[in-house]
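Bench notes, afternoon.
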Amino acid sequence: MTDVFMDNKYIGTVKNAKDFVDQVVSERRMGRVSDSVNIAYSQEEEKVLIETSRGRSTRPLIVVKEGKPLLTEKHIQQLEKKEISWSDLLKQGVIEYLDATEEENALVAFTEEDVTSDHTHMEISSLDLLGLITTMVPFGNYNQGVRLNQGAKNQKQAVGFYAANFLVRMDMDVSVLHYPHYPIVQSVAHSVSDYDKHPSGQNVIVAVLTYKGYNMDDAIIINKGSVDRGLGRSTYFRPVVSEELRYSGGLMDEVTMPDKEVRGYRSEHEYRFLEEDGIIYPEAGVKEGDVVIGKVSPPRFLSSMDEYSLASDSRRESSMALKHGEKGIVDFVTLTENEEGNKLVQVRLREQRIPEIGDKFTSRHGQKGVISLVVPEEDVPFTSTGLKPDILFNPHGIPTRMTVSHMMELLAGKTGSLTGRYIDATMFESEEESDIRKDLLEMGFRDDGSETMYNGITGEKYDVRIFVGNMYYLKLKHMVANKLHSRARGPIQLLTRQPTEGRAKEGGLRLGEMEKDTFVAHGASLTLKERFDSDQVVVPVCEKSGLVGYYDARKNNKPMSPVYGEDSEMSDIEVSYAFKLLLDEFKSLGIYPKIKLKSKF
């Protein structure tokens, strides 16, 4: 007898486990049992597992019987004529969904040629192993697995034409590429997903060579002429939103131009772009500190007297101004209502982004790099036909990463652009490399993709041939303009007196254990002290009790001991404010933190 478990709960036993499993599977294929039920027999554990729970991932496979797939040519013709649909194939038992449990008992063939009498199922398509975006990697079966994943991940971060109605949308933190292209080297996934309607990259000429050591590691070098002609140019959009909130007691915020009597009034210069209604006008060029939406709010804390006399001077300023490091042009302004019927003002800012040093680019093979140099066009190496590459890629990125498909795409892109056709580079089903090379040879180029190149500065011929080709490059949303951040002194937190956190708040850069070690190794002791002095404070310490004292401003303006008053000797000690807080925490727990002082000398 074999135990049967349903969703990991024991429900009974069966005599012949294999027959029972076969019976349930055949009933499911006939449509008498739900197609989301999966069953498997575990011989080692001597138990039958039935799964019906929600949230399992299942995948469709073609059923194979006696060495032949049940999906025939007739089915395919009927599907093409739209006489039958996917659900009909499911009802006929030609296709079934398996989950991870049932797949343990299945032997799945990759293609029809692989099918033997032992096989139970066959893949619908060889691309089924991968997700939609992974199948967009051209010649992906020539790649190392990890790079394939990274290539898919990078495509999701690419700046492109993300939505056709972007002009009337209020999206957080989005970019639109100005001149997106459709890739020359493409896969089936591109046509299936209508990629031509939302492309996110550009076809560029890439030369694989080093240039004065500037493209060391993963850096790339870009041609200034290409940038001037619009390569990788995009617009960055960001909304500024404010609403009139309703408070208890019938008080409300008001979007308006703040009066000079309002508490917290900024300078007139910061309000210069606001119109009478307190809202900025379109096409205004704003930078940090400029107010975009003027707003006043009722006071935070109301005393019993204030409730009756709400004069204008009791209101506080709560306008929306640009934070540290932000700038842009007001793109458009909308006035609408939120769910409660209160006024909602949305202002969208735009900023043109031209590729600069520090911007991130990538191919579709996980070969990401940061621009390290923008070279004047006249200094870029050129081919014998006078062609100048847009991007110079470091050859050392290829051997260790094993991204052969990166080189294949360069070759195929070159052939495609010269012959004027798209190259099919679908994984497992791509055009043959030999055919691509043959076409390239017929166009009068070397079939290995290499060309003679000349130094752009001296005009000398390079001793080696350089691999040059056409490739689909993506600009990623990680732009240096959004990340550049530095600080000397600035705002501090009220509690710890340490610098605030984050780029928007003009925060400090944290120095941890490892960074400390680098300073120690350099012997830069004063730099190290300066870094750890962000919250230094001088406190009076009582030499008798060892407790932190206080200044008595009312009596004699002298430091006093909390225990002995004026009768004790007080010494000024320099400590971190966070340490002083720690001592206060100890005192609140009833622990006596006694500081023992001794002379420095």
